[in-house]
## 1
Amino acid sequence: MIKVKNLYHSYSKDDKYAVKDASFEVEKGEIFGFLGPSGAGKSTTQGVLTGLLQLQKGEVTVAGYDAKKFSKKMFNDIGMSFEQSNVYNKMTAKENLAFYAKLFDVETKDPQELLELVGLGDKANLKAGDFSKGMKHRLTFARSMINNPKLWFLDEPTTGLDPAIAATIKDIIWNEKKNGVTTFLTTHNMFIADELCDRVAFIVDGEIKLIDSPRNLKLQYGAKFVDIEYIKDNDSARESLSTVEAKDRNRIKELLDTYEIQTMHTKEATLEEIFIKVTGRGLV
Amino acid sequence: MFKKIWAIFIRDLRINTREFITIWLLAMPIIFALAINALAPSINDSTVRLALVDGENPVQEEYLENFARVSLFENEEAVRERVEKRDDYIGILRDGDEYYILTQGNENQAIVDFAKTLQVLYTLGYDIEDSTAEIIELGRNTPPFKKMLVNISILFGSILGGMLIAINIVEEKGDNTISAINVTTVSRMGFVLGKSMMGLLLPLYGSITVLLITGFGYVNIGQMLLVVLSATMLSLLIGFVEGLANDDMMTAVASFKMIFFPVGGAVAVAEAVSDKWQWTVWWIPYYWTYKGTGEVLSETATWPRMLLYTGIIIALCAVVFIVMIPRVRSGLEKS
Ligand SMILES: Nc1ncnc2c1ncn2[C@@H]1O[C@H](COP(=O)(O)OP(=O)(O)O)[C@@H](O)[C@H]1O
Ligand SMILES: [Mg+2]
């Protein structure tokens, strides 16, 4: 569905690249996660893929269209949810969706049903300008589904939403995958990525550091960890240690010999821990 | 594509009929027309201006004053001088036993006819009661003051269209919705056309409304729309440029004040300055609209002349377009 080869992009049109030599492919029907801290170049990449930003250097094919000559027709098959919600404040939620629906040539979804899907069913006739940030974000997300896209770009779809609503959004994305939709998901939420993505790319400072499935990553990098809680100087202390690295194993032994152990759990490394390990960077 | 342009237009129309300031803009042509009717209510304010020699024939003078504004001059030479100025003064002078009508040649034919009729009626000895009805009928399109106000209102309608566009572009920019439109099947051209519709329809409806309300419904509306809409292209472009350049509705509207200098200048020169200085405002497209509309209002317009004016307007606008369009394009891309 998406092919990217040696993509570069610079806003200042010089060698200060927001995206540097990025190459990846997204298969039909998969959820591909683009993970990285903010400023990493995720939205920029997505901008080039959707034609919002002009292709400067590299080869990009999206849904069979070459980015050098994107056709407006292709947007019949594409949905795009923006990181910064962008809806008409002076129109109601329903009017926003109904208007947008008219801008496609394909069959569109019923605005009211879509609003209900994202939990805004009872707010359909309120002006978007009176919505909270999170509600606007959900409206922007709902709008991206209006034309039943086969290829779906989601830029931080759960950012700023409370956990219950984020879970709803996650379920919706999962459902669409079952309908065969291909999704390009940008996020810095590792839990969402972990649960949804078939494959993830780690991107930092405009460069892709690695691409793999969360499962492989865990097998590869995610050596088992133990969380140990123990009493030290009449106080409880806690350490998280790898069960494979020699240094950590010695430390575990030391703790067991020296201190009174309160609890001890094994756990898998999270995607976030792997990200930090691979890129040497946190996610915020 | 047509369906989508229409959808964009209908959206704008809906939003514009919900907000105070845009409702105000939409109602402006009607307000103007009513104000004109209040200011220049009827033909009886006699804006036909006659120049006579003082004391030459007091009875005739008194008679004519019932129907026209009569100015008295010292002698024939002074009358002649007055008539030769740009505006529509008509001299009535005596030659032996006969009276003749002195014109400069560029006066509105209806005014000349009106003066002739007055003179004939006087000679035949009709008094006011007998003649008023006929005179009103004949002089229906003669008051230049009213004509000028109508013409200015029509010109203003074209500029209002630009303001409306600026307001609607500011909305899209403020809500960041252009990027959302960019990921639909609507092309840039489709978007621009859709956004232009309100700005095109306001002058269209505005000028027709003004004509109908002020009693000019009988003129050749097709000819007038030709010169009005061609200049509206320029108003629309200015609307897009100002909309993209401003972040706030009120400042976008206020920025249109810069356009009032050339427009006001063109109107002032056309109305009050002698022929030999008219060229100083030839570069202003709105001047040609004003001139064309003026001719339509006095029913002296011909299609070839209106097409000529339209050609001039389009040529002048083309220059502005070539300079401005890259700015609009990059403005739409950035949003
Ligand atoms: N419109 C822009 N103009 C200039 N620089 C930009 C613009 N948008 C983003 N950038 C810069 O490009 C880099 C990547 O940004 P972005 O792609 O938005 O990151 P992400 O989506 O991963 O948070 C950042 O350094 C950001 O400051
Ligand atoms: Mg981003």
Note: The first strand of chain A starts at residue 2 and ends at 9.
## 2
Amino acid sequence: MLKIDNLTNEIDGKAILKGLSLSINAGEIHAIMGPNGAGKSTLAYTLGGRPGYDVTGGTAEMDGANLLEMAPHERAAAGLFLGFQYPVEIPGVSNLQFLRESLNSQRRARAEAPLSGGEFIKLAKEKAALLGMDMEMLKRPVNVGFSGGEKKRAEMVQMGILDPKLAILDETDSGLDIDALKIVGAGINTIMRKPDRAVLLITHYQRLLDYVKPDFVHVLADGRITRTGGAELALELEREGYRELAA
Amino acid sequence: MSALPLPTRRDESWRYGDLDALARVWPVDAAERIVVSAGETFSRIIVQDAASSEVAIRHIEITIGRDATAIVHILNTGGDYGRIAVDVTLEEGAHFELGGAILGSGTQTLEIVTTVNHAHPNATSNQIVRSVLAGRATGSYLGKVMVARDAQKTDAGQSVKAMLLDRTATANAKPELEIYADDVKCAHGATVGELDKQALFYLASRGLPPPQAKALMLQAFIAGAFAKIADDAERERVETAAIAALEKLL
Ligand SMILES: Nc1ncnc2c1ncn2[C@@H]1O[C@H](COP(=O)(O)OP(=O)(O)OP(=O)(O)O)[C@@H](O)[C@H]1O
Ligand SMILES: [Mg+2]
């Protein structure tokens, strides 16, 4: 599904990713953990094609297609979804309007028929219910005035509606209360735990992984994957911290 | 009768005008005069969408009678040079409402120029102008609010915001106050900005191609200009024209 090989990049001329390699197969859930500033969000943004995140070397392919050559909206249409660590507020633009246009743009790009207004609302209601989010919130402008936890939940509603092949979720668990964490965890499983889907979870804590059990856990430190293991690695990290590991 | 001389840049209200273009159509028609009788409501929608080589100069003078209201909406988007000037005088307790959008590209010069004269007490005015400018276009709002000595309890608001799609475009925003009364409320704000890049990436990451993402954000940006058109069908007509004009800028 995703194959990253020796990826390097720069932000404002500063090297952040320093030869990162990672492969994710369909049906797998991977977690990335790592110290603050290690480059986890940078990896997510770089795969999403955020302007300013200049790739200086290496490759990243999704289903054999060169991700790095595509514009951000083309990556989305190809099946990539980015759950933002800090979802952006967009005054005046309603969630429902932008999601419908986004989904239909993706569908047109894949030569699928666009959804009608009625079909879209039905889909949105279903996904909002799955994540326990009030439809009224989806009528409001994108993330404006949402609490930290509501923003993360809204990201997952968006993921449900857009139904990506590969989701990269950057600290989706941060800001969620205990009940919300459970709901979001279950939502991720329902939407993404399928043989033809894959997830890359970026997190600092084991607690999300209690609900969304990873097949692989990686440590990202100083722009590279420095260690890979199974679900037990996350528990070890929680006990020992990263310092022990580097030694 | 001798023709009026062509204005010069020293005339405050023409300082950002395209005077060469103006010379092509000079002398222009005299101002249209409108008197709104006491207690009445007058509304006018001006859609200036002249063909690209044209020069469109409009001037309206409105006297708003006691406790009367005038509501003016302007979509200024056509022509080489498009200028819409509105001069308003308010009687006691009158209200003036302006909602305007300036949407320009290429080498267009587009202006909304207002003078609002609060000559008597208890009158209110509210002006909202949103500009979106691309290419080497120039969009200007010059809005002078005068509050006479005995025009106590005046409440005058001006909200002016411009969005530049290209660094080569120019926005001029000149809200101006001349206040001689002491018990008045005059709020004015003017900002010039660019589309939020983070928001554009966020929208793109959901699958929206850049022109569509920009169009969504720009629609939201100008929405306030036409929100107060009371008639739904009229509002939709103007909004549709505005969206079409926006799409031409992208
Ligand atoms: N726009 C930017 N300009 C300059 N440096 C940047 C920029 N964005 C990120 N960086 C730097 O890149 C490094 C990696 O940042 P990144 O956000 O990827 O870390 P992270 O692993 O996600 O950390 P956290 O766990 O705190 O979220 C940091 O040193 C950060 O300061
Ligand atoms: Mg981060």
Note: Residues A 40-41, 85, 170 surround magnesium ion (ligand 2) (CB under 6 Å).
